[in-house]
Amino acid sequence: MSQTYDNLADYYDRWIEGDPAAAPCAAFYRRLYMETKGLIVELGVGNGRIAGPAARDGAEIVGVDTSIAMLHAARTAWAEHTGGRLHLIASDMRELPLPSGTVSLVALPFRTIGHFTGNEEKLRVLVEAKRLLGPSGIFVVDHYVFDRDWADAHNRRWLKMYVGCDNADGEVGIYDRYDYDFENCMMHVTTRIERRANDDEDKKIEDTRFDFSWIDPADMKVLIDRAGFEVVDVFGDYGGRAFDGHAEEQVWFLRAQ
Ligand SMILES: C[S@@+](CC[C@H](N)C(=O)[O-])C[C@H]1O[C@@H](n2cnc3c(N)ncnc32)[C@H](O)[C@@H]1O
Question: Which of 168, 200, 210, 251 has the smallest set of CB atoms within 10 Å of its CB?
Answer without folding.
Answer: 168
